[in-house]
What we know:
Layout: E1 10-13, E2 20-31, E3 36-37, E4 52-53, E5 58-70, E6 76-80, E7 84-87
Antiparallel strand pairs: 1-2, 1-7, 2-5, 3-4, 5-6
Amino acid sequence: MTTxxxxxxxxxxxxxxxxxxxxxxxxxxxxxAAPLLVCEDPDCEHDSDTCWIEDDPELVDSxxxxxxxxxxxxxxxxxxxxxxxxxxxxDYCSECGQIGCTxxxx
Length: 106
């Protein structure tokens, strides 16, 4: 499943009442590859850890979670894409991030 997300937009997020968010990218999922058999002894039972090696996990972009930051804050949150709702540029305060606030003069 591939979800279209506008990373230039601002969003309200379900459960975070009244604060605008911007997105910094997709969250990443760690995918662990299957262990590789490295033992060449045909009589081995391959039950020893020395018979196998494990590759480092691969990081791939998630298509269900994004990294999001509240406007006016610097802490990232992992947010499900279905919780995002695009808001207009002038629907929130660019300083405090509160939706409906006009303290920034816009």
